[in-house]
Design brief:
It is a single chain. The protein has helices at 16-30, 47-51, 54-62, 69-80, 88-95, 100-117, 131-137, 151-161, 177-188, 202-209, 225-233, 244-248, and strands at residues 3-6, 13-14, 128-129, 143-146, 167-169, 195-199, 214-218, 238-239. By secondary structure, the chain is of the alpha/beta class. The chain has two domains: 3-14 and 125-248, Rossmann fold (3-Layer(aba) Sandwich), CATH 3.40.50.1000; 16-123, no CATH class. It has a six-stranded parallel sheet. A two-stranded antiparallel ribbon has the order 2-3. Helix 1 (16-30) crosses helix 4 (69-80) and helix 1 (16-30) packs across helix 6. The longest helix is centred in the middle third of the chain and has 18 residues, at 100-117. It is globular, with a radius of gyration of 18 Å.
Amino acid sequence: MRILALDFDGVLFNTLYDNMLNAFNSYLTFYPETSVFNGKKLAVKDLAWVKKNKATKLFKNYVVYVRCTEELVLVFYCIDKRIRLTDFSDMDNAKREFSIKRLLQFQAQFYKSRYNMHEHQDWTKLNKPYQKVINAIKGYSNIYLVTNKDKRTVELLLKHAGVRIKGILDKDISINKSEKFKMLIKNLNIIPQNIYYIDDNIYHILQVSKIGVNCYLADWGYNSRKDIASAKKKGIPILSQEDIKNVVQ
């Protein structure tokens, strides 16, 4: 049995603006004095204005170093305090300024904001499917999503896009993707070499490749030229959206 495993954010869907609005609104709860986005709570209707804001460009640059939910909120701390993020170690350094309790509060507030946003009719407009990817995987039955996103949001977006998959390994299982794959391997009674995994985050790719899973770095989504160069240097194949059909054959 051959398994296709996909990350969700940045691979199957472009969720940048959903993540950004909820991350900022969460940050605003803790730092109401911020001048980022004029210190104004953001809504879907603000998207056109938000796209032109300098903070949006910085968020796009920094989100490539995000591995879990609380780090999305932390990006705005770095933007607000003018802390540059150039690699994952910079994110780790910024993270050390906060207690575990505070980081968990960031995470909880993010999901509170997200679930409130689910109530708005236009919410799905913040999340755009990568149509070439969806077209490539249609008709393939053994697809699993391995994501650090919440299952509730993933299921809503999949339903909206008409995408069917076999299973979701979400944030509640673990934020360590290697552990998720170990669970998948055990539950399906397969060998790692029969799994083909596509992610846009090089941190996760390098983590998962150590257990023998076939890993590919997406050349779209949330990564940088530096990530792609690093992946090539380490022998990780780079995949375009058009190439996915070759993986699933």
